[in-house]
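Support reply, case 0932

Customer input (verbatim):
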Amino acid sequence: MISGLYSVSAISAQRIGLFGGSFNPAHDGHVAVSEEALKRLQLDQVWWLVSPQNPLKDARDTGDFDDRLALAKSLAANPRLVVTGMEAELGTRTTAQTFNALAPMFRHSRFVWIMGADSFAGLHHWNDWRQIPATLPLAVFARPGWTRKALSSPAARLLAGHRLDAADAGQLADRAAPAWCFLNMPLRPESSTAIRNGNATSGG
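Our regenerated output:
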């Protein structure tokens, strides 16, 4: 069970972006993508799903969950950005599992999955990855050095016939999956990896 904030009645008929990740640590680049998503996708809210542990990453490199959650909350000053530990509450480890658990919500509101171009480029490595674009529309945001890899990735090839033009991004939440768009935005230099390595201005 999850808290009442995320109940079907509380979010009925809203347009919500789900932005998942380790947020290890969260930074202003995450905020910038979220703000861009609110505007370009015409969303009511963006929920950050702070993962207890990314199954594709070494647990030894993942910071304490409570610390990551607290820092994310401190950065998300916009009241339309909602930082959640939902996956810890649900007990899910993969995005596909989280989607299955949230299926009742998906039937009552319009959801979009938000991801960076670097994540989209490697989507085919995720567990049950084809289930993700089959369940929710995807909004893929440019990341430094990742555009070509993202747009030539197995996911891009699989979904080639379902891509919306960036000019139509405001329609994405209204589209049935599969649907996706690639959105350019002012590129941010921050990366969680660089910050952990003591170089807060490096891209990655």
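We compared this against your earlier run and they match. Two observations from our side: The domain at 4-196 is CATH 3.40.50.620 (Rossmann fold). The two ends are 36 Å apart (CA to CA). Please reopen the case if you see a mismatch on your end.
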